[in-house]
Structure formats: structure tokens, C-alpha cells
Amino acid sequence: MAPMKLTYFEFAALGEPLRLALAQSGVEWIDNRLPSEEWPTLKPSESAEVVLFSRYSWRLSILSE
């Protein structure tokens, strides 16, 4: 399976705990830091306070304990 890809803003904010967890997990992953000016091109047309999206099903994306 291809590595997981975390896409989040390039500043620490809410994505940082997930980055730290992935770094400690040993899981192969890609840290895709998104510049703020690129966000409008990826933002869905519906408005939402939190947007989570994944190429994989969430069940497959859960890290083992």
C-alpha cells in the first residue's frame, strides 16, 4: 500500500499532533505542508469548519496501537 499522506497547513496548528503521532508510529507517510495561498484551490465548495479527507478509507487509516 502507498504511504499515507497528511495534507495540512505549513504552520503547526491542529495538524501538528497528528504529525508527531505519525513520526513516532514508524508508519510510512508523506508530510505535505500546504501553503495558505494554495488552500482555496483545494477547499470544497461547501463551507465547513473542519475538513477531513483521505484517499483511503478511515478504517484502513487507523494506526495500530
Beta fraction of the residues? 15-25%
> How many separate domains?
1
Distance between the termini: 19 Å
CATH third-tier fold name = Glutaredoxin
Biggest sheet, open or closed, and with what strands and sense? Answer: 2 strands, parallel
The amount of helix comes to 25-40%
Structural class: alpha+beta
Please report the number of helical segments: 3
Provide mean pLDDT, rounded. 73
Strand order of the largest sheet: 1-2
Query: In the CATH classification, which architecture applies?
Result: 3-Layer(aba) Sandwich
CATH superfamily: Glutaredoxin
What integer value in Å does the Rg equal? 13 Å
What is the CATH C-level name? Alpha Beta
Question: Multimeric state of these chains?
Answer: single chain
* Low-confidence region ranges: none
Number of strands: 2
InterPro entries: Glutathione_S-Trfase_N, Thioredoxin-like_sf
GO molecular function: glutathione transferase activity
EC number: 2.5.1.18
Keywords: Transferase
